[in-house]
Amino acid sequence: MTAPLTGVASAPAAVLCGLGSWVPPRVVTNEELASRLDTDDRWIRSRTGIGSRHLAEQGQATSDLAVEAGRSALRSAGSPHADAVLVATTTPDRLCPATAPLVAARLGLCGAAAFDIAAVCTGFVYGLATACALITSGTARRVLLVGADTYSAVVDPEDRANAVIFGDGAGAVVLRAGHTGEPGAVGPFDLGSDGTHEEMIMIAAGGSRLRTASGEHARRDSHFAMRGKEVYRQAVRRMSDSARAVLAQGGWTVGEVDHLVPHQANLRILHSVADVLELPRERCVTHLEKVGNTGAASIPLALADAARRGVFRPGDRLLLTAFGGGLTWGSSLLTWPDAPV
Ligand code: COA
């Protein structure tokens, strides 16, 4: 059993008490992509570590995925109740309204505070920080946080660079009011952004800046675009810097980290972050071989997969770190709870 997370044992904290995940049933293998795009399994595996991904059917929206993951997290928490429902997503059902109120209503949580978190692939970590703030301020006692993305709705299926990377899915956690010394306590946090690189990861049209895509770049502007090489470099730098910052805040050494749970961007990025931190790669939790990069869903999906496989033991120390469009980045610490989630 490891020592308390950080600081005064009696300080209020958010404690993990439920975990759930859901991916759409349709599996798309690298071979299937290679049958219609100029790519192949060997290129995709060697550059990204991805073997297959799950894609939503036409008509299946982010709220549909979020409701399934949310329901399974509430079931694992042993109570259908939450005072607040947060949905971290880049692919909401609609521009207006937010997706979270609909998810709350479909989970029987009408009346709960509900709003979306928009921080692209860092959304889950930003959502965790928001959930913790709601709990430690006394505004909520129990929060359902869902990370859910349907990238197939925004990635151009003809764009081989992005079509091979992204998948659809949802992961969710339930956090309850507790104390910093408890296993399951989440925090502290390191969060950051750099909007001068707005164009590095972008869907150009559909907002108030470029209302509708038109002209010769219409197809490009209405789809997800990413400058892969620059994103790669930024992702490694930002996640490792942020991870170091949060470890310093929490008073943990790198050697005390049992599991690094990074945003599942690309296997090479994850291994580079582990290398920069001087953490053995075996301590890096990976799930992207089967699901690809699922945006805001990737950390809770990886947590749920590893928990199912029995990777985490009570009291294990987890370092979560994420990077995404914005640019945004963030990290947090978590001790694995005693009770199964
Ligand atoms: N299959 C085959 N070839 C492909 C391809 C694919 N799916 N996608 C791109 N290529 C080609 C490129 O067109 C390029 O060809 P060229 O040299 O003739 O121009 C070549 O492969 C190399 O492309 P490059 O972009 O240099 O490859 P890379 O090694 O940087 O890998 C990424 C590309 C996208 C996999 C890589 O940049 C990456 O992982 N970036 C980060 C992406 C990510 O994780 N984003 C999420 C962050 S939240």
Summarize the entry for a quick read.
This protein is of the alpha+beta class and 341 residues long. It is 31% helix and 24% strand. It has helices spanning 30-34, 41-48, 62-77, 100-106, 123-136, 160-163, 218-221, 228-250, 267-277, 288-291, 298-308, and strands spanning 12-22, 27-29, 52-54, 84-88, 113-117, 142-150, 168-179, 185-193, 201-203, 224-226, 259-262, 317-324, 328-335.
Summarize the structure in words.
The protein is of the alpha+beta class and 341 residues long. Helices cover 31% and strands 24% of the residues. It is built from 11 helices and 13 strands. Helix 4 (100-106) links the parallel strand 4 and strand 5 (113-117). Helix 3 crosses helix 4 (100-106). Residues 1-8 have low confidence and may be disordered. Residues 39, 43-44, 47-48, 121, 160-161, 164-165, 226, 228-229, 231-232, 235, 265-266, 269, 293, 323-324 line the site of coenzyme A.
